[in-house]
User: Fold this.
Amino acid sequence: MTQAAGSGSDFLQLRAGEAPAKGLTGWLTDGLRGAIAAGRLAPGTRLPATRQLAAELGISRGVVVQAYQRLVDEGLAGARTGSGTVVARDAAVTPRPPVDRRRTLHELRLPLSTPDGIDLNLSPGVPDLAAFPRAAWLRAERAVLDRVTAADLGYGDPGGSPRLRTALAAWLGRTRGVLAEADDILVCGGVAQGLALLAQVATARGEAAWAVEDPGSRGARDQMSHWTVRPEPVPVDEHGLCVDALIGTGLRTALLTPAHQFPTGVVLAPHRRRELLAWAAADDRLVIEDDYDAEHRYDRAPVAALQGTAPESVAYLGSVSKSLAPGMRLGWLIAPRRWQAGLLAAKHASDLGSSALPQLVLAELLAGGDYERHLRTVRTRQRARRDALLAGLRTHLPGARVRGVAAGLHLLVELPDGVDDVALAERIRRTGVLVHPLSWHRQLSGPPGLVLGYAAHPPDRLAEAAARIGQAL
Assistant:
């Protein structure tokens, strides 16, 4: 040994001090052989340079050379000029049971990006990922990296980058009518994390149930249930959430999608908005406003967010999941100020704060106008896709009634009473097209239907999907 006993390497956590006094070569060979057999050193893995490993272990380089040569002699490794010693491609490895991740996701009822046998995924909520503004994002990222400071890359404020919160306050105020200062905004990992934070604070306050729209997002209900909040259904009609029924529940919190109700597509009518906000203001109640796809509208005027009318009664949620990509995991939560301290503490406990660089890049896109230019481009693409799917449905399902076409990224096909929409969706699935039965998004009984997302596919593929749906019907 050339260094003190106990010297060690990060490589396989080897410690020469654990070796017998006169058996270093055998000890090292056994360690390497065992790691290969267990799969810790996969075939093709390059072993550390002999000089480097010897220095880390505090042993003679000749010991490492001899150990490597034994592996070569046993056919477990091979020496390559210029590449050092590499674990042999055919090295015997003790097989481990394979991990069937797709089965695990299925058993947990979690979504698969591309389910088996599906080539046309019309699930609602799947955006147009091909439209991601790569060039604009790259320009913004370069600009950010050119001036980012060390402090910007630290833990920072768990509520989010001040630059992004400032940009969001201005943009949401201008485009959605939101009334908020930068310090009112909490940057989170999408609407899903915003809901999780609200659920944690609500349950700590003793509010174990929320009113939800019916039909309404099954994903949101599952999220609530995970955080031990019980979803209580309130019916939706052609004017949106039935506020009289909400009042009858006796609950203090309601989650809804007023600008574009999921999945029916209706807009919360003005008289219902007034009734809802009066309900919320009367006894310090809370409306959670999920503004999930308000950027996408085609045949109607924009609908302002509820939050701008009653910022002390409404918690506003939004994200870039439908406008950029869900993989960005960037969203925002603007809650009444009496809730903000609890939410900030929950966010800090969850992850110490969202990733810094994507926040700074989004702030750059917002400040420079690139984000809004991207939205205009995407809106034109999605209008064409919606039109293609509508035309296909008129051709192949001429009697169908279609709702929710004026905005969003999905539409609803209503079916005659008595049709089993779950069985029908399964028949359609066997043609390679994935759709959601409306029953999936219900807790109460109601008419059947199919929910079809159209954002992820070009017009010709949507026309093909409509033809296959027609064949299944």
Notes: The chain has three domains: 11-87, 103-126+373-472, 132-368. DSSP finds 15 helices and 16 strands in the chain. The first strand starts at residue 77 and ends at 80.
